[in-house]
Task: structure prediction
Amino acid sequence: MTRSSRPGLVLEVDRRTPPVLFHNGENFRLERLPSGSRIVYPPEPLEALKHPEDAIARAVDNPHNADPLRAKLRPGMKLTIAIDDISLPLPQMQLPDARQLVLERVLTLAAEAGVDDVELVVANSLHRRMTEAEIRRMVGERVFRSFWPDRLRNFDAEDPDDVVFVGTTEHGEEVELCKRAFESDLLIYVNINLVAMDGGHKSVPVGLGTYRSIRHHHNVGTLLESKSYMHPERSALHHSASRMGKFLADKLDIFTIETTLNNAAFPSLYDFLSKRELEWSLRDQATYLAVTSGLKRLPDQMRHKLLHSIASPYELTGVNAGETEATHAKTLENLHRQHVVQVEGQADIMTCGVPYIGPYNVNSIMNPILVVCMGLGYFFNLYRNAPLVRPGGVLILTHPTPRAFHPVHHPSYIDFFDVVLADSTDPKVIEQKYEKQFAEDEWYRHLYRTSYAYHGVHPFYMWYWAAHAMDYLGDVIFVGGDRAVVSRLGFRTATTMADALEMASETVGRRASITHLHCPPLFLPEVTP
Amino acid sequence: MKNDLKKIALGFRWGRPSAQPKSAPVPALKTEGNFETAWARKPWANTARDLLQELVLLPALRYVASPTIRGRERLRHVEQPVVIASNHVSHLDTGVVVEALPQQWRHRVAVGAAADYFFTSKVRGSLAALVLGAFPVERKRASATSARAAVRLVEEGWNLILFPEGGRSPDGWLQEMKPGASFIAARTKRPLVPMWITGTEHLLPKGAKGLRRGKVDVLIGDPIFPKQKEDARELQVRFEEALLRLATESTRDWYSSLKQTDATHGGPGAARWRRVWERGDAPPRARSRWD
Result:
């Protein structure tokens, strides 16, 4: 990549501004925003590392606050390498995956040092197990053939033989971990850091943790106290994960390798998704028309397959390795270089389109609960300092919210939607009344362990992610949503954007200011209230 | 599909020049300033332009605008090339300035045109280059490419027409002026000729869809000769004074303008309607020679 990267942009809409693109589930829509509205655009992708393999080698040879990896490896040792799962990056990256490059370097060093007892564990925590094909794609053919299936596997957080209770932190948080990892002489964690929320101490205790551990920070109280998920210092969730991480680091040798990617989220065919509309060429306009009308006409399954086959041309912008905290500090620096866009002032109304993909529906279906998690959990919380919208403001999202669930991946979500949400949408009530029951349900446990299902408690966590937004906002409106579904979720539906703005005026008045988050590609508005 | 097509056609200004939102960064399109127009100054293109202008454009302009040109005598001892800088209120201004020039000057004229307006599509840019002799000028920022191109044209003997306001005035009042014309004159040491146009804003104002007939006045000022060590900023001061004097002369008389220039050509600092109101009504329609 030779072109220079332009920083993000806050554009004020005037009569010359073309309509703005909204993601709309498995399609897209163009909307005209009123004059005076602001559109926050992401920065352009940073220039990638020219020789990523060399950068990885340099990082593990010159780690932060730790001995070089080479010095830690010795014959006869027990080495476990944990890897981030399929929830990162989004969409999946074009091959080779960053994790493959890191693994190949680490394993080359391990082989040179004569380490025989090596095991690779996908740190999927309470996420669904990755399929053989997905793992093969992620780690690459060489690694896969060398280790699958005995020494390359998914982590099973419900396997009593592979879970160990480590102890409790000074705050009384119970720490349970993958036994193999805990009993290793060295645990290497290979991470992809897509947003500032990922990585650091959140990797090991969460990725290799169990329900017993994770419930201490994935709960309504902690998430309500987290003032900015993307700002670890201001996030109670991160404080808790940090305590657990430090607790583990005292008992276990952890070597963290973190990678950062640029935000080249879409291949050139879909350029219109990344470009600012005012720079759309005729070709982009034609592609938009062709793609949207084509997607409209395709049968559900084909549309779904087509979209999930999109692989991002992400490229590595940095690799850091060593002690977790020192490494993560460098990672965040690098991430902010790509992501941060300065925004002055909060708006009365925030608008955003919910895309077809999120961390929990890769090769799957984005069901209504995941839509809420994406819109209210992730996009609303995509800020530093303060949200893009003021307290009591309105969030307008575009998504058709069909009542569609993946029966294999999301079985507990179906019951959550039909049973739990029919009773209450209040996260606190739901947590008290239903969480334990779903978390300990034997059938969900069985599906999580033997099939490809998310853990029974997972839909609760998705709902908790949205708790901060539900508490903070005055109203949430879905444009183009299924009325029955949105009503079950506890929100309101509008047919058009104009209707949604009209409805929002009941809450924020007629002279409301509007800010549109032009996302994805992902970025991080730093908002000065 | 039909709705989407309509939304795109309207939203992306199909058939109209693309325009940038005011808060958009520049340049949004990287090719505008580099639009190649050298071919439009080749002999064949120059001849075609002369024919088009003399046989079609200028007669049509005379029919529509009946221009009255005053001050042409001020150019009688001036040698080409020169830099001509005028106020700008309408698309008709370029034609009016060309009409105001002495006959023998019209054959070597290049017009600085907004890169982000005229040169956003190949068809529009090529037409502007052929018919008007236009070349792209970046107006939202100081561009070394534009400045170099303009200086080269003057050095090659082309008279340059520039509108230092950087765009048409939305209400007829003078806008803030950019120093590009003075920079080129100072750099090439060629005379800077101020011009003041009145009336075109009533015939084809900014944003108008139709053309009206009427009467236009053009006042040509004394050429300003850059002094030996004068830089662009000093020349700009002299130029702005001269242009204001011309504006005063156009509304009052030459002698009054010498004594005191009217400093309110920027118009009152008030709402748009009051600024338009202040300028008064459109002049009466020109009488047809058959009336």
User: Anything to note?
Assistant: The first strand of chain A starts at residue 9 and ends at 12. Chain A touches chain B through 23 residues (CB under 8 Å). The two ends of chain A are 36 Å apart (CA to CA). Chain A has two domains: 9-44+340-528, 52-261.
